Amino acid sequence: MIVNEVLALQQAIDQIDDQLIELLRRRFEHSRRIGVIKKSAAQPPVDPSRVQSQRDRFLRHCAESGLDPEMSKQLLLAITDRVIAERLAAAD
What domains are there in the chain, each with its CATH number? Predict the structure, then answer.
């Protein structure tokens, strides 16, 4: 019985991981598209106020969801730092 429960939970985790990967793919796709639009409009690739408000919203939502604050911050920084790096590289 315990083995079946563990296997079921592991399968659920695998499905969630697949969903996370797809969400990240979509998120980066949208972000790259924003970068292209901004470049064609001669706008700066990064809006610091948008980055800050997005970070505040993300961390607030994570806290409200009971997620570990340090893990949430690390995850957010990994994503946003990568987006910013891609946007800056594409702007050159």
Answer: 2-91 (1.20.59.10)
